[in-house]
Amino acid sequence: MAFLQTDAISMRFGGIDALDAVSISAEPGLVTGLIGPNGAGKTTLFNIITGLHPPTAGRVLLDGRDVTGMSVYRRARLGIGRTFQRLEIFGSLSVRDNIRVTLEVRRRWSRQRIDINQETGAILERVGLAELAKVPADTLPTGLARLVELGRALATRPRLLLLDEPGSGLDATETEAFGNLLADLANDGLAVLLVEHDMDLVMKACSQLSVLDYGELIASGTPEEIRANPRVQDAYLGSEDMVEDTVADSSTPPGLAGAGAGVGGLP
Amino acid sequence: MSLFVGLTIAGLATGAIYAIAASGLVVTYTTSGVFNFAHGSLGMLMAFLYWQLRVADHWAGPFALGAVLLVAAPIVGAGLQLLLVRWIDINDTGVMLVTTLALLVLGMGVAYAIWPADTARALGPFFGPTSFVTVLGQRISYEQLLCIGLAIAVAIGLRLFLFSTRLGITMRAVVDDRPLVALNGWRTTRLNALSWAIGVSMGALAAILQATLFDDLSVLNLTFLIINSFAAAMLGRLRNLPLTFVGAIVLGLAASYVTGYVHTTNGPLSELETVLPTLFLIIVLLVLPSVRLRVGAPPARRTPRIASARVSAVQSVGVVAAVLIALPFLHGTNLGAVNEGLAIAILGLAVVLLSGYGGQLNLAMYTFLGLGAFLFMKLSPGGGLGGLVLVTLIGAGVGIVFALPALRLRGLELALSTLALSELVWYVLFNQSSVMENTITIHRLRIPFISLQGPRANLIFMAVVFSVLAFGVGAIRRSSFGRLLAASKDSPAASATIGMNLNLTKIGVTALATALATFAGALFGSTQQQVTATDFYFYLGLFIVLTVYIWGVHSPMGALAGGLSLSVFPLVAPHLPSWISLDLLVGFGALGMVINPNGTLDAISSRARAFWESRPARQPAAPAAPAREEARLLGLPAD
After folding, report:
1. How far apart are CA B258 and CA B255, in angstroms?
2. B483 touches chain A (CB under 8 A)
3. What is the C-alpha separation between B260 and B226, in angstroms, rounded?
4. How far from the centroid of its chain's Cα atoms is residue B149's Cα?
5. What is the pLDDT of residue B178?
6. CA dihedral in degrees (B30, B32, B34, B39; nearest 10)?
7. Strands A216-221 and B132-135
8. Inter-chain contact A84–B493, Cβ cutoff 8 Å?
9. Average pLDDT over residues B47-56
10. Going by C-beta distance under 8 Å and a sequence separation of 6 or more, which residues neighbour residue B58?
11. For the residues A246-255, what does the mean pLDDT come to?
12. Which candidate in B194, B200, B223, B579 could, as Cys together with B77 as Cys, close a disulfide (CB 3.0–4.6 Å)?
């Protein structure tokens, strides 16, 4: 059963439909990809799921419970952890203290006995930041700062993990390691919802994909089904003529080329 | 009936002035993203300039008005935007607020420098005494009709400009997405300069009308027209012009009816008209829905590192040692000033805790200082320690009540509501004859085994108390609670997504800081032994905040430097040119926040560290014998 279910979520900003009756789900033990061109509404949907934005219409269900009107911090306590598209690290704290403060918050509300030092060390090891524990977080390059956000999200001990473009800023080796980490997290039973433009990573890591375009859910299915979906091809690359042009054009910007290559196997 | 009509017309005229001022505030905010605390202060300066041209230099009215509204005010507004405001990081709420607060204070300093307060000035009415119409037996002056007419013209004009012209729509779009507007070929800096030019002109118009209608050319009253404007603008959440207009008219009418129908010359109700905007503001803040947490807009600056426990301890011991060394050289007023400075420095520690660590800007700090002094006098008439503890606990409670209306909202609302509340408390409480209108005498604190009666003994005691508290404030920052504060300041959105209850964190730090501020007040009273309401005038709250920011709001040493600066200035002032005032220095100094947001002490230590690290590297020591042998075996040179 899905841990997260969005039920016909709509969001209007002024006169613009950022999301139009979007229903997606995320199941424990699976990495679900949420893809779509820039401006498709992916981050808006994340903000609605976490409670940062109230939807114009629709419901957010967490483990079958309607949490639509619930505050951000209460949802976090129910098991939603997230990272951000634009970094939101605690810059004045060290890498270690970014994790530590999260554990301290969890200890306060959960009233659990948590060995803060031991758990902080374990999380830093897991995300590969143990060597940088004492470094001030605001001095890290983007890729590593994203790992701090991931570690912080893991420290909430989430049941659902929302990752918003975690691969941007990582090099090829780091991306591969990150893919393995995603698989580990799913094996641990987490429901992972991944927004990512690196289609190689998405296709390897995700067992299910949902595709948004202009706020509308245009496709859902396995990576193979999504690859073959003409609406998805059209959303990413426009007409078929454009597809051919783009795939053939080596000067295509990296993001688009990545999309082309990934959605690819395209004609 | 005729009284009601008269009061209504008068209220509409007053409301019209508020509407013009508030609309200017809204225009600047919606088009540049910067809330201009100095809106009233800049308007005040323009009103004085108008006085200079019209009264002192005998210019014809229309020429003087045109020169101020169409030339000077737009130049000042656009100039400020181009030279100063454009460099403010609008995602850094603290710096944004402090910079425009600095402008507010600087504006007052400039006014006092050019138009010294010892000369009375007045702006005569635009029209003669026979210029009125009669409605239902009530005279309505042309002055009042002019105000109402101008407000209607401004409302219609702004609405048309911002919503129906390409330029106006683009100006609004700059705040939403500056890069996108720039990509469309617009020069965003010029657009913002235009919005500031319009905003300052409207502030100027409101200030001139206010000074003319009420025959009140006062630096303070015109500067703090900002509170009335803000109260009106908050009804429209600083964005909605029609609601701002409604808020202004409601405020104007309420003020007029209170003047007409509430006949009280003594007691708190006598100040009802003065504090009406604050009451209005509190009601609006209470009914406003919570704001959304912003995502994706962290400030760009590096936060200074927090001193370790060892460094904090060394600093604390150093403060006591410095006082002991300086003690033989301090006498009379110098000794008194340093005593007072240490009490204010303890107040500064509250600013460090609340603003530096917690990211909350509370402008009512002097109110808590006064509250502490007054309560200590009442609760501890003999100077006993029990009263001091009680005073501190009450301070924590009152601080929470002060902060509650705006806790759910943003730093901007908290700053403005605390400024407004401090004005309210000063008028309805401190300045009452039963409280501190006249000088009150406070007993020196009594502690077991040690007499603090002498100023030297008191100074050593104050230095020890400051040092202990400074270490304690640093320890709070290094504690688990301090990490909560840092996280909530760095990213409120991320803090909420890790399960932190932000409101609870804000309440916690507010209670701690106001308890500390009230404690400082008790010690201030104990040190000074005689205080009066003017010692805690509400706008002094700006000075302690700005001064601590100037030196460094992230360090207890910034609080020390800030407190001593404020207390020592009166000793230095007689040796300075008369035009140099504390307002001028503090305002000018705090503008430096744009260049150096972490304060002077951080800049000094950063430069010192950079200098130290840039020294030529020392020659490496000669390898030890085994290393030499190893090198020889590897066929490498041994040195």
Report:
1. 5
2. yes
3. 24
4. 33
5. 63
6. -80
7. unpaired
8. yes
9. 95
10. none
11. 37
12. B200
On chain B, the residues whose CB falls within 8 A of the CB of A90 are: 486-487, 490-491, 494-495
DSSP for A142-196, please give it: HHHHHHHHHHHHHHT--SEEEEESTTTT--HHHHHHHHHHHHHHHHTT-EEEEE-
Cα–Cα nearest to B109, from B550, B548, B579, B589: B579
d(CA A83, nearest CA chain B) in Å: 8
How many angstroms separate the CA of residue A133 from the nearest CA in chain B?
A: 15
B305–A contact, CB cutoff 8 A: yes
Please report the sign of the dihedral spanned by the C-alpha atoms of residue A73, residue A75, residue A80, residue A85. negative
Rounded CA-CA distance A195/A147 in Å is 15
- In sequence order, what are the residues at sequence separation of 6 or more whose Cβ sits closer than 8 angstroms to the Cβ of residue B574? none
Instruction: Give the number of A-B residue pairs with CB atoms closer than 8 Å.
Output: 104
Residue B359 makes CB contacts below 8 A (sequence gap 6+) with: B93, B94, B411, B485, B488, B489
Residues in chain B closer than 8 A to A93 (CB atoms): 483, 486-487, 490
Q: Which residue has the higher pLDDT, A123 or B186?
A: A123
Full DSSP string of B325-370: HHGGG--HHHHHHHHHHHHHHHHHHHHIIIIIIT----S-HHHHHH
Q: Read off the pLDDT of residues B472-481 as tens digits, 9 standing for 90 and up.
A: 999 999 999 9
CA-nearest residue of chain B to A80? B497
Q: Do B296 and A97 touch (CB under 8 A)?
A: no
| pLDDT at B480 (0 to 100) | 95
Q: Give the E-state strand segments of B362-445 in sequence order.
A: 440-441
Chain B residue numbers with beta carbons less than 8 Å from the beta carbon of A92 are 303, 306, 486, 489-490
User: Which among A72, A85, A100 has the least Cβ separation from residue B497?
Assistant: A72
DSSP structure class, residue A94: B
Q: What are the CB-based long-range contacts (under 8 Å, 24+) for B582-585?
A: B582/B109, B582/B543, B583/B105, B583/B106, B583/B108, B583/B109, B583/B112, B584/B106, B584/B109, B584/B110, B584/B112, B584/B113, B585/B109
Of residues A50, A86, A97, nearest to B497 (C-beta): A50
Q: In chain B, whose CA is at the least distance from the CA of A101?
A: B483
Interchain contact B494–A (C-beta under 8 A) = yes
Q: Residue A250: what residue type?
A: S
